[in-house]
Amino acid sequence: MTSTHTTQLWTPKLEIKEVGKTFKTKSGETSALEKTSFSINEGEFVTILGPSGCGKSTVLRIVGGLEEATTGEVLLDGKAIQGPGPDRGMVFQSYTLYPWLTVKENISFGLKLKGSSQKEQDDVARHYLQLIGLEGFENHYPIQLSGGMKQRVAIARSLANDPEILLMDEPFGALDAQTRNIMQEVLLKAWEESKKTILFITHDVDESIFLADSVYVMTARPGRLKKKIPITLERPRQFSIKGTTEFANYKQELLELIREESLKSI
């Protein structure tokens, strides 16, 4: 009797394959991103770190379908990305809430567009209001919220749409240091609960270590992947972990890598 075995091929959640980007300018062309390749697993939290102008936001915009790659391709669940889509949620540094909608209406906006029942919209909004700690603010408008509260709503809105991956472009960059630290913990709580795959762009070394499973360091422009550093700090993480020797060692390594690239760009 002959037995047969089916081999299941493992596919990363997100694959960046030889992706490059060149912008046309009045004086010719500018290479923002050299051919870059990396992959992200299901449920992984990856941060991209690099000097200013290295192309890290360009990578994110290409994954989000907001920019078209000059070379290479991006695959999500094995399928090529062609333009924006509901399978990718995006959170930017600027506050992108709809000012004429309440907090609750902003969170459930995508569900309403999908034709979800009012009960489902209410249930999902209630769940994320609790998760991000904004119960009692559901009927407030964005103008009545602080910067940190607005970003909490933006994160909740993206998660409420149940995307395959969450793309975040320096979402806490405009916040003061204290609020930024709190928002990092809020995001980790939401990620641990949702198990979503997250690609997060930042220029903050401490933030990149605290949040990530892996930090991808990019070179100076034209950007390319310089090094991948797995972060093995214990989860769930508390703010106090930033004071440990292990955290300090990661920080020193990353600061040296970024300094090398920053000097090249001068």
Written description of the protein model:
This protein is an alpha/beta fold and 266 residues long. It has eight helices and ten strands. It has helices at residues 56-63, 103-107, 109-114, 118-131, 147-160, 177-194, 205-211, 245-265, and strands at residues 14-25, 28-40, 45-49, 71-76, 79-80, 88-91, 165-169, 197-202, 214-218, 225-230.
- The proportion of residues forming helix, as a percent range, comes to 25-40%
Poorly predicted tracts of residues: 1-8
- Order of SSEs, N→C? EEEHEEEHHHHEHEHEEH
| Total strand segments | 10
Q: Structural class of the helix and strand makeup?
A: alpha/beta
Q: Radius of gyration over alpha carbons?
A: 20 Å
Number of helices: 8
Protein name: NitT/TauT family transport system ATP-binding protein/sulfonate transport system ATP-binding protein
EC number: 3.6.3.-
GO molecular function: ATP binding; hydrolase activity
Organism: Sutcliffiella tianshenii
